[in-house]
Amino acid sequence: VSKWLARHGIKNSYFYDSDEDRSRIKTELIAEPFWVQVQNQYTPNEQLYFIAQYCEHVIQMEKVTGVDYSEKMQIMHLIRSEILMDRILERQKRAHAEEQKIYIDIAKLDPKTDAMEIKALRARADSCVHEFSSYSREGKDLQDRINALRKELKMTREQRIKDYQD
Fold first, then answer.
1. How far apart are CA 125 and CA 109, in angstroms?
2. Residue 15 confidence (pLDDT)
3. Which residue, 60, 98, 57, is CA-closest to 76?
4. Which helix (H) or strand (E) holds 23?
5. Residue 9 has what pLDDT?
6. Can you tell me the distance from the alpha carbon of 32 to that of 58, in angstroms, rounded to the nearest whole number?
7. Is the pTM of this model over 0.85?
8. What angle do CA 1, 19, 32 make, to 5 degrees?
9. E strand or H helix at 141, and its extent?
10. What is the 3-state secondary structure (H, E, C) of 5-61?
11. Which of 66, 22, 68 is nearest to 48 (CA)?
């Protein structure tokens, strides 16, 4: 099954074990000292995402020349930032869904008899709006950081390629 998945380019955990280059890179990644931190900090799905992204970055870079330790660390920081961005977006989605649910609950209440409950629900809805906008600011800051990391990685890579060509 894993060979069939790999042959058809279906990228799941078996793909990274059956593809020779990706398997090698995954093995090297898991041997890195920072992998223990990754396991402690991220969920199993996030770890799979980390492995997939790391393998793809390294494969892309290895087409020209090897990948040095500083580039590996830049890749790691980039992927960490992407995972944090995903977490922010998930929290933002939950805050928005909670706000929508609250407004549905408010619509079901009678303003004359349930005024206190409506007031409490509106306060919770306002809290969700504040939380949503807070995540928006965090997300923008993190997106700026991700863009800077990508630019830095690209510049480092271009310099190494130029040195290699020279």
1. 15
2. 63
3. 57
4. helix 20-31
5. 67
6. 14
7. no
8. 125
9. helix 115-165
10. HHHCCCCCHHHHHHCHHHHHHHHHHHHCCCHHHHHHHCCHHHHHHHHHHHHHHHHHH
11. 22
Output the six-digit token pair for 35: 């992998």
Q: What is the DSSP letter of 1?
A: -
Residue 58 to residue 62: CA distance in whole angstroms: 6
- Contact between 54 and 29 under an 8 Å Cβ cutoff? The reply is yes
Q: Which tokens belong to 34?
A: 């920072």
Task: Give, rounded to a whole angstrom, the gap between the first and last alpha carbons of the chain.
Answer: 45
Cα 64 to Cα 83: distance, rounded to the nearest angstrom: 27
| The dihedral formed by the CA atoms of 71, 76, 79 and 84, expressed in degrees to the nearest 10 | -140
Helix, strand, coil percentages (3-state) for the chain, rounded to 5, are 85, 0, 15
Strands (E) in 40-121, as ranges, are none
* Residue 25 amino acid letter: I
Chain position carrying tokens 């997300």: 139
Give me the residues of the chain with pLDDT under 50, please. Answer: none
For 46, 79, 105, 122, 138, the CA distances from 92, given in Å and listed in that order, are 18, 20, 20, 18, 10
> Is residue 32 a contact partner of residue 44, using CB atoms and an 8 Å limit?
no
